[in-house]
Amino acid sequence: MAHLGVFEQLRNKESLDGLVEDAIVWATAHGLVMVPAKAEPASAVCHAPIALTPVPYPRDTFVRAKSAAEDFSLLMDAVARDEEYLVRTLSPVAKHDDFVARQLGVLQRTAAERAQHRASENVISHLRSDYMLHEPTSSLLQVEINTIGVSFACLGSKTAGLHRHLLGRLGGSEADAERLPGNEALTGLVDAIGAAVRSYEAAARSAEARDSPAVVVMRNLYDQQWVQLGLWERHGVRTLRRTLAQLAAQAALAERRGDGARALTVDGERVAVVYYRAGYVPDDYLDPERDWAARELVERSDAFKLPSVAYQLAGAKKVQQDLATPGRVEAFFAATATDAEAARAARALVRSFFAGQWAPGEPEAHEAVADALARPEAYVLKPQREGGGHNLYGAALRAKLAEGGEALGAYVLMQRIAPPIHRAVLLRDGAAREADTLSELGVYSVLVRQGGRIVLSQGAGHLVRTKTADSDEGGVAAGYGVLDSPILV
């Protein structure tokens, strides 16, 4: 791995300072930026947190993870379509988790309304399946699969460009640069939304539906600005940025059509797609009754939802734990397969990535819970939350398990993955530091479904996030990790 020699250069302060300055200039010039956590969006930006050099990654493992992208997409679509399964699996969680309970309520009411009026559902799936290498076998295990507010497809796709530039600065060879895989994460997402808008307009066949914009419910301004620009430049699709509060005030449903559907309007303008980059944590619902009503109104419409509430529920940690039980994945693939041999291969590939997961309140988990109490460092306890900073480790994990009781039904106990550690130079807020780090690979996929017809389904790029080896969490926006990219070895 010849490129690892660059670290010797980075031990020289003059070389490091020069590279840091170059990285900041490149990131700023190419839009690899974020708004500081405490800054007003209009007042300041800074470079995104980044690793100065790419992380070595096994080529075969990378290719294998990418090859599973569409299989995971089809699996999660089958799960999201199965209302009965979602209700059965998540009702025990909802007893102790109001956030899940609200989602289930929206799902059941809107599904009943669609069934009553024979209206179809339009959805876009943008998933990211996250993995870590597990020592000593170097097997690749899934950390989680994300179904809402999936981040950094935009900024992450630019990190490989930064690394290609910096490798050149450090004297890396052309062969090294060629080992940085291309990353279609931004265009993959943009093209999926563009395909949904075109499908919506074609199905509506009305003047009002032409030039229908997409609504982006915002959180991370600059990561999503690239989506907005891409939609306009590649597909001529306009976008409106709105908060849940603004949707509550401005959104409405048109009269029901003959096909049972109702169009969504925002400020009187018909909308084809609603893309949620917020709404995945309770704190996003500042006025819960108002904001949940807005979310339900969107669900009742014929706009493409990215994602639907069903998809958000399909990404719950409890669902992921249940899918790991014997026979569950097999049943979902059997229900959707047209090619038996392909279905067998898909479910075997998907299952090969599963780490050990247990429902800590269930009798089947008794042995795993006992081991976790004795060796808490070998496990992680996960609530039904996204966004980083929610998992329990070590003493906190042991204390929660020791409490016992029905409230444990809101958690999932998972085997803790032990990834390899490597040295890296991390750049955050203009300051660089060398540290022992570990990395997580995310693989994106997209799916567009119009009623029962899948319009598009494919892989859509990747993401690498790197964090210090002593950090339990890894969210970039949450302040735990940095953006990275792989160099294949």
Helices, strands, pairings?
Layout: H1 6-10, H2 13-29, E1 33-34, E2 46-47, E3 50-51, E4 55-57, H3 59-67, H4 69-81, H5 83-94, H6 98-117, E5 122-134, E6 139-146, H7 153-169, H8 174-178, H9 185-204, E7 214-217, H10 221-235, E8 239-242, H11 244-250, E9 251-253, E10 264-266, E11 269-271, E12 273-276, H12 288-299, E13 304-306, H13 309-314, H14 317-323, H15 328-336, H16 340-351, E14 357-358, H17 366-374, E15 379-383, H18 394-403, E16 411-415, E17 422-428, E18 431-450, E19 453-468, E20 481-484, E21 486-488
Parallel strand pairs: 4-21, 7-8, 7-12, 12-13
Antiparallel strand pairs: 1-2, 3-17, 5-6, 5-18, 9-10, 10-11, 14-16, 15-16, 17-18, 18-19, 19-20
Helix pairs in contact: 2-7, 4-15, 5-6, 6-12, 7-9, 9-10, 11-12, 15-16, 17-18
Mean pLDDT: 88
Please provide the count of β strands: 21
- Helix fraction bin: 40-55%
Number of helices: 18
Note the beta-strand portion.
15-25%
Please name the defining characteristics of this protein.
seven-stranded antiparallel β-sheet, alpha+beta, glutathione biosynthesis, 489 residues, Glutathione_synthase, 18 helices, ATP binding, ATP-binding, glutathione synthase activity
